[in-house]
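In the previous lecture we treated proteins in isolation. Real proteins rarely work alone, and many bind small molecules. This record shows how such a complex is specified: first the sequence, then the SMILES for 2-acetamido-2-deoxy-beta-D-glucopyranose.
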Amino acid sequence: MPIQEDKNSSSLSSYVVTKLLNALMNHFLSLLLYFLILSVGVMVGIIVHSSLQALYSPSSLTIQNVSQLFIVTSPPPHPSPSPPPPPPPCPSPPSPPPPPCLSPSPPPPCPSLSSKENGLEMFPRPSKNITHNMEDKELLWRASMVPKIRSYPFPRTPKVAFMFLSKGPLPLAPLWEMFFRGHEDLFNIYVHINPSYKEYIPQGSVFHGRRIPSKTVYWGNANMVEAELRLLANALLDINNERFVLLSESCIPLFNFTIIYSYLINSTQTHVESYDLPVGRHRYNSRMYPHIHLDQFRKGSQWFELDRAMALEVVSDTFYWPIFNAYCFVPDEHYIQTLLNVIRPSLGSRNSNRTLTYADWSKNGAHPRSFGESEVNVEFLEELRSKSCGDSELCFLFGRKFLPTALDNLLIFSSTVMHF
Ligand SMILES: *[C@@H]1O[C@H](CO)[C@@H](O)[C@H](O)[C@H]1NC(C)=O
Ligand SMILES: *[C@@H]1O[C@H](CO)[C@@H](O)[C@H](O)[C@H]1NC(C)=O
Ligand SMILES: *[C@@H]1O[C@H](CO)[C@@H](O)[C@H](O)[C@H]1NC(C)=O
Ligand SMILES: *[C@@H]1O[C@H](CO)[C@@H](O)[C@H](O)[C@H]1NC(C)=O
Ligand SMILES: *[C@@H]1O[C@H](CO)[C@@H](O)[C@H](O)[C@H]1NC(C)=O
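The predicted 3D structure, ligand included, written as tokens:
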């Protein structure tokens, strides 16, 4: 029965075809599903990748754009339900509480310096505390800085820096206290004392807290000049200091503060004794040649008075000082005295070539005469005050060397003779 057979075979083949088609269809659908899932995945990947790239590029998408793109249904992030974390406690002055933030932002940085310390205030009114931890090299470098703009953008009262270079205590301090009293806005004191000396200066004294970092000084040694440089540099740190007087523990003022201040502030000259005489020339060392010639070499008293311009030249000199340091005997009587003449002729010609500090060299010894209790009387003090030199109205503003025994008499005559 071929027909039956045919029927049977045809139904069998149609069954097989249907089965095949079904299987193919199922396969195709699952392939399609896979393809769709894959496409969605790739798209998501591309979008996330470009969003992340945009995060690192300066423009376009931010993290909010990304979140808006995907988390459309999530609520907007603000207003934030919890306040931002409080800023860490700042030292005084207390900062006001941060305003309620819409989005968390970093707390404002703590002001580490008040505007007073930070701003221009520190120049007109530098710190009362003059201690520092600078090495000499650092100090001189710092002190050599000069503002290029000449006029001051704040009212500046020029001050006189009284620089005391002393081995130990200041036995005549009570006289100086009387001299300075009432003029606190017009001067600054700097004291260089041998570091081994532990002095006690009572609070309320004009010398309290005015001791600068020091090193041991030997008379006639180069470290004497280094101590002078240290005093000058410390005084230069205060922009108000205009005149710089070097004094010793045996110096006294011969006039009152008003007279001395006016004389110095009004002066157009510096006062460094500087002369070229055989007595100076025999200290010349030919190894200083060719940088310093014999006819440039000068001698003079150590006790100088400089203006700010000259003080700046002295602390800034890195060329001549090493030569004097290496080859000059008693450089405190030659270095600044010669520097004035070699460093800049304009500064040398402004120097009066005389000292403001009287000393009696009539004995022709290595040291000037000292004055004690028996020498100090009205006539003697008047004589020193009335000395004349050249065309100058006043010759000496200070005198040395006064012994501690002279103090009582000096305190008695200060008001009647010196008017302070
Ligand atoms: C992303 O959002 C910022 C503001 O949040 C907008 O300036 C910038 O145009 C947005 N970028 C895109 C691509 O939408
Ligand atoms: C000055 O400052 C130093 C630290 O730099 C400190 O040790 C010293 O006590 C201060 N002196 C005064 C008088 O405040
Ligand atoms: C400088 O001298 C003039 C005139 O001699 C005087 O008016 C002025 O007060 C003096 N300055 C000081 C600071 O003493
Ligand atoms: C001081 O001496 C220098 C040269 O050593 C000279 O140029 C200057 O004019 C002198 N000053 C006075 C006031 O004589
Ligand atoms: C300062 O001394 C002079 C005389 O040398 C005197 O005329 C003047 O009154 C004194 N000044 C003060 C403030 O005592």
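Summary for your notes: Residues 129, 131, 209 surround 2-acetamido-2-deoxy-beta-D-glucopyranose (ligand 2) (CB under 6 Å). The beta strands are 159-166, 187-193, 241-248, 252-253, 305-307, 357-358, 398-399.
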